[in-house]
Amino acid sequence: MKTGTTTFNEIDTYANIILKKQLQKTGVSNAGLYVIINDVKTQLYSIIKNWNDTNFRNTILLIGSEEGIFYEPQASNDVRNMVVVAIRNSKIETINSDNCAKLGLKKSISSSQVKSITSAAIEYFKNINLSKLAPKISTSNNFYYDIAEIYPIAWKALTELSKCTKENLEHDYQKIKIREPLVIDELINGEIDTKRLQEGVIEDGITPTLGKDLLLVLNSIQNGKTKIFYADSFKWLTRNFEKLLRVLEFILTHNAWFVTNNYFISDNYVSRRKALVKSAHSVAEFHEKYPSAIEVSKKHRQSLTKFLELS
Description:
The protein is mainly α and about 300 residues long. The protein has 2 domains: about 10-145, no CATH class; about 150-310, no CATH class. It contains 17 helices and 5 strands. Helix 1 runs antiparallel to helix 7 (about 110-125) and helix 3 (about 55-60) crosses helix 5 (about 75-90).
């Protein structure tokens, strides 16, 4: 996706020089290199273009908050969260997965290679005045805003959640009713066939399609059998922004709750954990270590207790 830029700026310097050199060392194909770099640029341009819109910035960076505050090196939370959203949650996810062959790799890159990429990005952007850079960005592409407009209920909920702080963990907000509840057929938009549901496919965290297990849970919500959708963190649902909002919109239009170890989201109430806990890195870690239900709201605690069997 083209950025529509007319001048070479700090974003291009990062993507076309720093990131490109790192990706070339992984052995990714030239076609894969092009896909990843353009994906990262598209997301960086959209975020930084709107950097001085406080509500937008806080909402989009919230998605990276469960990881960003634990990233190195030290920098502002905004910068580290931006690196999660625009860089870690990009096609880099594909080459860090079993789906790596799609972008020309025989073997997925390691966690240490991913860390080198995110650390270099933080080191670079922490020295850039993003508030001053924002007005200079010239692009017709507004990736995140365009998607947010399609899923207004999900975006509204995330915006309200971004207003929660360590001092004010929860608040109610006025419910918006724009549409009838989404249905499964509308959610998948014809993208999944019977064979896919029966056999499954190799996916990565950026895959836009909905897998069998996810569809089973969403179907349970649609049928009124399940009230709570639980995920360890945002990334455990997906690193794909459009997919995250699409699923969240579905959940909220069915008056169900989306719950992670750090956040609680409903269509009229949101809350956060006082001190965010690090998301699980692997399935084994997910099963071995559950966070305490302390420092969350009563409603959040009850949902975690139900699904994680906490006392």
